[in-house]
Amino acid sequence: MESSDVELDLQRSVQAVLRELSAQGPALQSNQGMWRWSLHKKVERDPSKSPTLVRILLRELEKAEGEDFRHVIIPLLHTLMYVLTKATGIPEELYQRTYAFCTRLLTLPAPYCTVALDCAIRLKTEMTVPGTLYQRLVIAEQNLESELYPYQERVFLFVDPELVSPSVCSALLLELEAAQEQQTPEACMRHIVAHALEAALGQACWAGALQKKLQNSPRHALVRYFHAVVTAVEQTACEPNPNREGLLEQLEEIYRSVLGPVAASRGRCGGDHVQERPPSIPLPSPYITFHLWTDKEQLWKELVLFLRPRSQLRLSVDLEALDLQGLAPDRRLARVSVLSTDSGIERDLPTGTDELPDAPSPELERVGLQRKGGIKKRAWPPYILMPSSWDGPPGLHRRTGWPSGDGELLPGVSRLHTARVLVLGDDRMLGRLAQAYHSLRKRDTQKFCLTPRLSLQLYYIPVMAPKKLVAPMNSELGELAAFLGCADPWYERTVNTLCPAIHKLAEMPPNLGTSRTVDPFILDVITYYVRMGTQPIYFQIYTVKILFSDQSQDPTEDIFLTELKVKIQDSKFPKDGSTPRRRGVAEGPGAELSICYQKDLLSHRTREVTLSLRATELVLKTLPANDTEVPGSTHCPPTAAHVTDRTCLNVSVTEVVKSSNLAGRSFSTVTNNFRTANIQIQSQDQRLLTLLLDKDSQRTFRDVVRLEVTPCPEPCSGAQKSKAPWPGLQKEVERTTAKPKPLQMPINTFSGIIQ
């Protein structure tokens, strides 16, 4: 195919992506997301098309900047960066133009400046040391051992078998296994060596002979080439003033050692091989582990296993024997101070004291001073301890967007691990994920500092039941996915369209041959999402305190993420001293409720409002209602940023209105809506309430008489109490810190919320 035909074909594909982004109405879901995927597949099959595609994308970006078509900037920029990460042989002029374009975007508001800054930093690294982005990405995702770049990543794919059909689970598992069978560590090391040499040497590299030689190299030689390339690239990238000439000399020496001096000199002088199509170097998909969601503690257990050093890995059967729920009280050790007899002079030391004794002698125990009532230090088992040797060198972190609210960094601790947790399901699955996230953050303050030692990134792919199987009452199970699609148009076109493709894959008969691994669309989209989706959208988690009618039953507390529904039960609870209702008086539907909430005023003050009314149902939603959106907005609801910045509940009360006429007394219902951050609801006429959290039938509470909903605070924030001695008396002094920080769960998208 001639160059003009190649450019015309790529231009048509790019224009199809732009039309998809600019479409006002909903397009066919079967076609959404396919244009971007087919565009990347074209350059993957023929890497010589990469410079042409980069030039076209850059031209469209500059055109969108000039005409102020901001809604296409972030999708095109992500597409461009994905090509630059994998490609070799891109002219320096295109890198410079792309970098200059990203620096101009820094003057725009978020999220454009945020995404542009991340891209500019990566481009600067790639321009200085070619091939760095590809090398670091593969090393981290495939967990290859490297002392100079010790970072590791893993994608945890969680599917709840109660919410997703077994056929979908089996289809996804087969596709993951088929793709990872071809991604051995040896294959990944070959890709890194070949990509680094081609990126640095350019036309002087005999790509076909190089890859064939690496394919036939024994493992020990391949490991030696791999470590030599990684050492050369990483040492140059970490220098204040990188020396590209020195890097080129080192890589040329490695190139000659792989091919031999004769073949290497032939490649440098040129020949017929230069006219051949360069062989493709694939970018392996990340290491993905498949998990069936069983309980909210499973996420914590999997992250603990991921953080263990490889030398301490054990079989999965040992997991049940570990006390992962906490330590027994007898494992707490008191802090002991021992009287020191050391004068500090080296010659006073007795001979043979180079090593500490295994246990103190009885004489030392008698003269030792045991400090009672001191600080107790928890003794962790050896397989749970995180040694300080895990702390890697600073400055080597791969940028993954801004922090996702996953805990503060500990002093002197570097995050060597990145856990990308991807969940499939509907709003019910996100509610269960919120429970696990809250439990994980709570553990950090009580037992085990987990999240400060790893970067926790959360991703979500909506998978609903097929429409023919969905009941009318379950049509709202995708509210959060719809909100993410409105906030981020590229998420809507790329991720929200995967559900039909996943169901189509589940309906296909399983093919155990090797042909089923050709162009796995779903796996490619998942890979693109977890790599480029670095901008989180935060969702407030709410706490509900529940009081039951049975006084012998202790009050309970739970959390919810998207919705809390309150229904009226038909049964009543006995109340002492209650007067019997008069005959002939119509009670009417619903129940008498007392509602107390805080109303926000224009002066940014709050006023407490208390009202009593008869209602049949209350619905508390954390997402803005559709009727609050401004007409004509095709990208995001105008209240999206407002709701995520402030803690706000959208309350809908179905009130019973009583009216009298000649025909008698009648009842009608009217819906009242208001917004608040805190609310208390109590039944007044012996009618019991039923609570449904996050639309999940397994999270139902019955026989409730009172509930209180407040924003869930961070487990480590809030007021702290300490006892301070005062002259003449002991008085408890409450040391109040700042206002409790709300606990928000981040879900990664491509751009965050577009204003």
From TrEMBL:
It comes from the Eukaryota. GO terms for molecular function: 1-phosphatidylinositol-3-kinase regulator activity. It holds the Pfam family PI3K_1B_p101. GO terms for biological process: G protein-coupled receptor signaling pathway. GO terms for cellular component: phosphatidylinositol 3-kinase complex, class IB. PANTHER family: PHOSPHATIDYLINOSITOL 3-KINASE REGULATORY SUBUNIT, PHOSPHOINOSITIDE 3-KINASE REGULATORY SUBUNIT 6. This is Phosphoinositide 3-kinase regulatory subunit 6 isoform X1. It comes from Erinaceus europaeus (Western European hedgehog).
